[in-house]
Amino acid sequence: NPMAPVTMQDIADAAGVHRTTVSLALRHHPSIPAQTRDRLLEVADDLLDTSGTTLSLKNHRDHENLEDGDL
């Protein structure tokens, strides 16, 4: 039974932030402090490690893709 991919919403829920914050952090937006981005990347890594699945950054309005090494 394959597990569902980890989404930006999953990361946001686990970190206690809005999905938009996750999106901006993953794109290294200057409005997101490096400390926050690093914490969100750690949360994403932890979710990926425990789920054994992939990261899906699809949402209702746009599609974003992480390249190897972005996490």
Largest sheet: 2 strands, parallel
Shape: elongated
Percent helix among the residues? 40-55%
Rg value: 11 Å
- SSE pattern, N- to C-terminal: EHHHE
Query: Which structural category do the helix and sheet elements fall into?
Result: mainly alpha
> Residue ranges: pLDDT <50 for 5 or more in a row?
59-71
Distance between the termini: 25 Å
Q: What descriptive keywords fit this protein?
A:
two-stranded parallel sheet, single chain, 71 residues, mainly alpha
Task: Give an overview in words.
This protein is mainly alpha-helical. 48% of the residues lie in helices and 6% in strands. The chain has a two-stranded parallel ribbon with strand order 1-2. The model is unreliable at 59-71 (pLDDT under 50).
Q: What is this structure's SSE topology?
A:
Elements: E1 6-7, H1 8-15, H2 19-26, H3 34-51, E2 55-56
Parallel strand pairs: 1-2
Helix pairs in contact: 1-2, 1-3
